[in-house]
Amino acid sequence: MLLSLKVLSYLLGAALLILVALVLVTMQPVLQKEVFMDGRITVNPDTLQHYVYHLSEELPPRSGDVAHLNQSAEYIFDVLKAYSVDVSYQLFEVDGITHKNIIATFGRRSEKCGTYIIGAHYDVWDGHPGADDNASGIAGLLELARLFSETDIDCPLQLVAYTLEEINTGRKHIGSYHHAQSMVDNAVRVEWMLSLEMIGYFSDEENSQAYPLSILNTLYPSKGNYIAFVGDLNQVGITRSIKAAFKGSTDLPVYSINTTTRLSAITRSDHASYWAFNIPALMVTDTSFNRNPNYHTANDTWDTLDYQRMAKVVEGVYYATLFHTNSHTE
Question: What CATH number should be reported for the domain whose range is 45-325?
């Protein structure tokens, strides 16, 4: 009987250790953080609101008609051109129709580091306004262009606006897949990629945050007042590093999850296109339909977003990127 109890206690202890290990791998808690104090930059929430309003209300719907998509592409190109001398269209065809990614390049080439990528898709689902999904991501991208135009960056950085993320005809047709493939085809070493996928919806209401698995309710907050980093099990290292830098630059709560791609919810954005080519990538998100009730509806409008907290997301991404791009020469 005593032997059985000892065996049982060992088994329970082993199970507990496995559970703790799984939680640590999944959540990647960060106790230390990189703190940025000098030369503090700020993002104006009104600027983000302006971009979101123009994209979601003043321009034609960003889906279906390629002529409408091209109007948004031209607007994004013009804004990026104000901040970078190296802006170009990446053209690709789907069913005989030419589509456009927009790429703005910053920084300098270096033998010490590869290229960093931050991207967001500009198309929408079914002609809806798409304020959070994903004018918010594009607004963040455009403001990052301003910030990096004023910054000395030690590594190459590409800001990319993708089209056709919302397409239903397979990943190989979407803009981010074509960009990721071009990195491989041109032998460009990529350090990591961040996908800005819905970064503007927040709530302090209890139970405003849902999760794809019930067990996650015991591990993560019930209020949708944080930003999330999402990666697979191959992205644990960059998740910790980016998260630490992000936490050091803003008081906005940040959580992360690293789990298997069998959980399909973690593959539903442009970052997964880079995984297809074994390029490290994370999604930066307000968790989409797990929080925002307006997802893929006509109610996803500019006036439902929290631009103050959205600005903190942009600041955090800026500092996390700067920390990594400028750490290779130290």
Answer: 3.40.630.10
